[in-house]
Amino acid sequence: MDSQPIPFKAETRQLLNILIHSLYTEREIFLRELISNAADALTRLDFEMLTNREVHSPDAPLEIRITADSSTNTLTISDSGIGMTAEELTENLGTIAHSGARAFVEAAQAAGANGSPAQLSNVIGQFGVGFYSAFMVAESIRVVSRSYRKDAPAAEWWCDGSDSFIVRPAEREGRGTDVIIQLKEDAKEFAQEYRLREIIKKHSDFIPYPIFLGSAKEQTNRQSALWRQQPRQVEAKDYDEFYRQLTLDWEPPLAHMHLNVDAPVQMYALLYLPGKAERSPFSLRKEDGLKLYARKVLIQEYSRDLLPEYLGFVQGVVDSEDLPLNVSRESVQANRVMANLKKLVTNKVIDTLKDMAANDAPKYAAFWQSFGRFIRQGAAVEQQEWERLLPLLRFRSLEKPGEWVSLDDYIARMKPGQERIYYLLGDDERSLRYSPHLDLVRPHGFEVLLMTDPLDPFVLSRLREYQGKQLSNLASPDLQIEPPAGEKRADADESKDRAGDEPEKTPEAGEKSELAQRIQAQLGERVSEVRANNRLSSAPARLVDAQGALNPELQRVYRMLDREFQAPKKVLEINPAHPILQRIAALPQDDALAQAAIEQIYENALLIEGLHPDPAGMIPRLQQLIEAALGKS
Ligand code: ADP
Ligand code: MG
Three-state secondary structure along 202-233? Predict the structure, then answer.
């Protein structure tokens, strides 16, 4: 056998150069890459032995052994896998043309131009050049291997990171591979067992073969890939323990989902709804995203391509036999398999939430309390399939103080003949309970949803109908309220029944009442109009939008997005039958108390709409009114 140095291909030389000279952070991942190669070699042997028992050392246990010697600064990763012949060593670790090496070099150059090549070391395995990552920590590497083929002698590969490597005959009794690393001076930590244990735990805990460290009898990794087990064989406490190891979260998860799917793609997944929305500072999960394994090998720590953004709080693991192991990050995203995985995972999460909502209302309420904002966010901004989130939404209701109700709950409670879902938009539930707009439904006993979340107007601006029922804002001026079946219209003219959708006419329509004119004269430019509305009952007045104004949902959206947004001028609707307004009408136009009362009615209406610019500014007038009410002593 020829032991002349064999030159690397140009792209491999460049790759080595970057690994040796530019990457200093996250160097520990080299161990994950070598363990993953060892596991691949064991998997391939496993597969071979399904049909062929004529292999070298057929009884050798399938395992990975890692030994470190801090006195000589060496680290050895051994496996009893498929092994390599001299030709395979030359080809696989040397002369093969690597498109991945070129891609990695380009990515490193691009990142270097941005001044941040650091994160690249973590993804090197995805370029199919993981083996070379060992040069981040190695002075030199020796690979001694013996193929599973019975007649193949052992061979070794040696390289000190220069432009060439050598391959020559070697001694190795059993089948498999030793990767022997002479560590760099600044990489001594990797000859320490405690450090190696930490790295194995962190990156290779679920490698499907036992990993033994040093002379330890106990394997270092957990090995069992819980998500690959049959759900009925896994105990509830194992699910919780796995979650704890995954996240270091002490709060138990709200729910877990275990999937084992064969079509349209093969997938195992173990997903969790966390106990609370805030990640603790000690959480192992530093970002949103699921752990993505391809055939038990971790290929992405935080894959955000498996769930829509609004479900980013879901934790867990997805593992597919159909994902290629050596794909770059970009091709993972573009992969058709990924699109299928995403659909499966997303559907599962949504179905689980729907089940929980249907069968365990208190648990769903707890979920909603912590995570409702994410579901709302999905319903507000998601481009695709946002409608399927609608049954998951919860709102406050006039009828059910302190409870969260769904649109379906609302519909189930609708009065016979009620065609609309009524709602009010506002800043907080308490003030909405005083809203004058409620006068319109009070006589009919209709339920009203109180929409107080900042995202509600976003949802409502796209949601105009649910289950065939129109969503109607009680504050819209032209809202026609149909009384429930069998109930007489409160204001119906007995002799000639008006058609349902004919616009409501107030007695004063056409000629404006004297009182309305008087109030309009006093408020002047501050309102666009003052008119009577005889369907108000307990409230003396309310503010509504003028004809053709931007709808109230969008006004709220704009107010949220732009602090400077000026609400358009409103119409003041007054209740001429209200005792306060009747008293005002009886007082002369220049009466100071009547004028103060009109001001106060207007400002109260502003306040209840959340539009009052200066509530404390009302105090002097309120004092004036109190003094008047108490009388002069
Ligand atoms: P990848 O694992 O993505 O193929 P690597 O750079 O990690 O890329 O490894 C290159 C190749 O070297 C592997 O495909 C495999 O053929 C061979 N190899 C590496 N380590 C081992 C091992 N422990 N046993 C057998 N073959 C190995
Ligand atoms: Mg590899």
Answer: HHCCCCCCCEEECCCCCCCCCCCCHHHCCHHH
